Design the sequence.
């Protein structure tokens, strides 16, 4: 039994090291850097629907304060990447809706996220294709309403 464990360990360890070494060196974690004077929340499209989360309560949990950044998780976690999300979307883009936190608080019990978008009460809609996201190294600097640095 000990001999079998040794053989297994001696085979599996190099295999795992090989798999890990095949991971690309590209860091494709999406980071939003908020350089605006106010706190923001974001919603992102999901590739299979090109829609957004319609709950203000969910958006209010994830707030990016001024001069702070946040890593935006991919819905598929480690299984997929942002590149796969972009490639899977209907128009091959990633859409990010940016909301001023004060707007979400103001309309929390009055409007849904979709209604806020329809009434154009959000800060802005960011749309990026894969080439743009790559050139920005997956970092979006948000300077304020309609003022985005690439």
Sequence:
């Amino acid at each position: 039994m000990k001999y079998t464990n040794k053989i297994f360990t001696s085979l599996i360890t190099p295999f795992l090291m090989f798999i890990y070494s095949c991971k690309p060196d590209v860091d494709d974690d999406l980071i939003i850097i908020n350089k605006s004077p106010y706190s923001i929340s974001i919603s992102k499209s999901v590739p299979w629907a090109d829609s957004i989360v319609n709950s203000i309560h969910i958006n209010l949990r994830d707030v990016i304060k001024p001069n702070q950044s946040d890593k935006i998780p991919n819905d598929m976690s480690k299984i997929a990447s942002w590149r796969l999300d972009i490639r899977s979307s209907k128009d091959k883009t990633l859409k990010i809706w940016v909301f001023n936190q004060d707007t979400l608080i103001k309309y929390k019990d009055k409007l849904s996220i979709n209604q806020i978008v329809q009434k154009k009460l959000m800060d802005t809609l960011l749309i990026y294709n894969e080439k743009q996201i790559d050139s920005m190294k997956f970092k979006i600097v948000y300077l304020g309403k309609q003022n985005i640095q690439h």
Remarks:
- The two ends are 58 Å apart (CA to CA).
